[in-house]
Amino acid sequence: MASEDVAVGKRSSESVAVNTIVNLAEEAKMASEGVKAPSHAALFTIAKSLAAGGIAGGVSRTAVAPLERLKILLQVMRMLHGPLFVEVQVQNAHSIKYNGTVQGLKYIWRNEGLRGLFKGNGTNCARIVPNSAVKFFSYEEASRGILWFYRQQTGNEDAELTPLLRLGAGACAGIIAMSATYPMDLVRGRITVQTDKSPSQYRGIFHALRTVFAEEGPRALYKGWLPSVIGVIPYVGLNFAVYESLKDWLVKTRPLGLAQDTELSVITKLGCGAVAGTIGQTVAYPLDVIRRRMQMGGWKNAGSVVIGDGKSKAPVEYSGMIDAFRKTVRHEGVGALYKGLVPNSVKVVPSIAIAFVSYEVVKDILGVEMRISD
User: In the predicted model, what is the mean pLDDT of residues 47-69?
Assistant: First the structure.
């Protein structure tokens, strides 16, 4: 009897094990059937969305390339020349005289011609096209995820994105895009400030990347990354939050007849983009200045690049973001944190506006629907 009981128990345990394995296999089959690979149509839609973002970034940045170069030169000029720049400028006729937006553009035109106004734009577009593509796509995906989570938490399936939620989605998109393309931004800044008289020339994007990697190490490619990421949170976040929220408000309230049904005119959308860009860049601008100066730190030819005489050196080195803030304010005052803000403001107004509108226009042409509220 005892042996029969043992045999029965053994068969029973084996049966349970077999049933368990069968059940697990069935569950795995059901799960694999439920998880489908993205269709060709879905991948094509993603590709078109990325293309729309890239085109929007390239068009908007090329339109304001001269102001972008002037902004970078103004940001790094006092760091390289020091507080005595005004006196040196009077004594040295070869020093760059960027006293203002118009004067600066005229000086670049006289000394470097049309190519000087667009110097670094190829590198800039090579960075901004993938940056813009990733940024717009990431914003839509982040918005969808945040909206889904918000609806689950509130239990309201009809809930819409609030300005704060849009700010969070924009911040996520900005961080992803900035981190993915940051080395390109660093070499773009260096190529932009070099002149024909610079003793050491970056011959292009890949030459600059190789040179920085070889002479300064791989970490140098992400020099200034922290203030960049911190600055992206208010900058890109506010851009998207203000633009989308302002559009929604205009559609709902229809002030001054600016909205026809649920559509806004291109001019109205450009105005929304201009407001969004102005607010975002004003808040984040000091961090942009610090980022640019940290990128120039450690570059042995930085001083001679701007002045063009091959004699100056860049004496200021920064151990980190806080140190860069402290030294900038101590040596040059708080106003240095907003150096180049005026040309940057003139640049941002059309740039952000053109980017947003171009993105929507290209998406309409390509037949891509907004997927945030899916």
Answer: 88
The tokens for 272 are 């929304």
Give the whole-angstrom CA distance, residue 184 versus residue 206: 9
Cα(225)–Cα(31) distance, rounded to whole angstroms?
41
* Token pair listed for 24: 């697990």
Query: Which amino acid, residue 353?
Result: A
232 pLDDT exceeds 60? yes
HSE-up (13 A, CA, CB side) for residue 264: 26
User: Which are the contacts of 204, defined by CB distance < 8 A and separation ≥ 6?
Assistant: 123
Q: Which residue reads 């918000």 in tokens?
A: 150
Decide which of 19 and 181 is more confident.
Answer: 181
CB 238 within 8 A of CB 170: yes
Tell which residue, 52, 75, 249, has the closest CA to residue 136: 52
Spatial contact of 136 and 49, defined as CB atoms under 8 Å apart: yes
HSE-up (13 A, CA, CB side) for residue 167: 10
Length of the chain: 374
Categorize the per-residue pLDDT at 199 as very low, low, confident or very high, splitting at 50, 70 and 90: low
* Residue 276 to residue 239: CA distance in whole angstroms: 5
Q: CB burial class (10 A; 0-12, 13-18, 19+) of residue 7?
A: exposed
Cβ contacts of residue 281 below 8 Å, gap of 6+?
235, 288, 344, 345, 348, 352
Q: Which residues contact 315 (CB under 8 A, 6 or more apart)?
A: 82, 303
Residues 6+ apart with CB under 8 A from 333: none
Task: Indicate the pTM of the whole model.
Answer: 0.68
